[in-house]
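Tutorial, part two.
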Amino acid sequence: KKYGAEIQRCRAVELEVTLELLTPCKRTLIVPADLNFHQFHTIVQKAFGWLDCHLHQFVLENDSYGRPSKLIVPPNAEPFDYMDGTAPEYIDSSKITLENVFSSYEHLQYEYDFGDSWTHHIKVKGFIDLFDNIHPHCTEAEGDAPMEDSGGPYSFAEIMDILNQPDHPEYKEAQNWVRGTFWHPLDLKHINAELKY
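Running the prediction step on this input gives:
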């Protein structure tokens, strides 16, 4: 109103992203639907406090053996074959939008850090035709996400258990290690500040 300009709006998609952990860890995101999956990867990284230090992929479909058969991957991803000579179908993440995918798929997986194997389940909650914000936005957040290189869900649970016991013999060592990972507990305001850039 102050500048006599219309509020910028866009078509957006609301997504529930749940990280497989021993404790609940979920983010509800509203994201402009015209963003591509390379951009969406960055959004998920920020929503969970990841530092983009490892490989990732989006899994659209699995074959009858439960292996990924259709993947959205970074432009520079190295193709691979399974031992039986078959290979997944690859889609360049910079060339496909959220609108393209979530119009056909209601659920997919985002896998980050193939060593620690962080699996995120992404579920479509719906589309919003006139979203009043051109930036991604996290509307709800539940649970602390792990720090980088924490070893997977069980190792992360063990670290958090130690940090909750100041008299634990490994408390100081765990505390010092966590300080070096740039990790901090869940903070919705911090997530949304990160998502603006």
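The longest strand covers residues 118-131. In part three we will examine how such features are distributed along the chain.
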